[in-house]
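Friendly challenge for the regulars: who can give me the structure tokens for this chain first? No prize, just bragging rights.
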Amino acid sequence: EVVAPAWDEPIRHRCVDLSAKGLWLQTSFPLPVGEVVVVCFEPPGCRLGELLVFAEVKRRIANFGPARGMGLEFLDLLAYEREELAHLLRRAPAPPTIHWSELAAQLLAA
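First reply, four minutes later:
Bragging rights claimed.
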């Protein structure tokens, strides 16, 4: 969830890229670059539970399409939280190297 001054309540977004320094959210409501927000999320397998951090919008794509969204840089992630994220990301499986439609076709053919 993201809390922003422009919104009345927290809004859920889809995180499509995560690093120890920030994340990319796919959203129909990308905020202006420079806007500071509060991000609340719990990465799968995180031993710390839910993380609550301030983040700044560093990049936005406002046009329609699958890339529409905003890139957020974490501002106050503590060292141990950053290390936990890095640890989780090292263990995460690599994304598939083929397009999802090709993978679906292979699975249907099996």
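Helices lie at 79-91, 100-109. The chain has two helices and six strands. Your move, everyone else.
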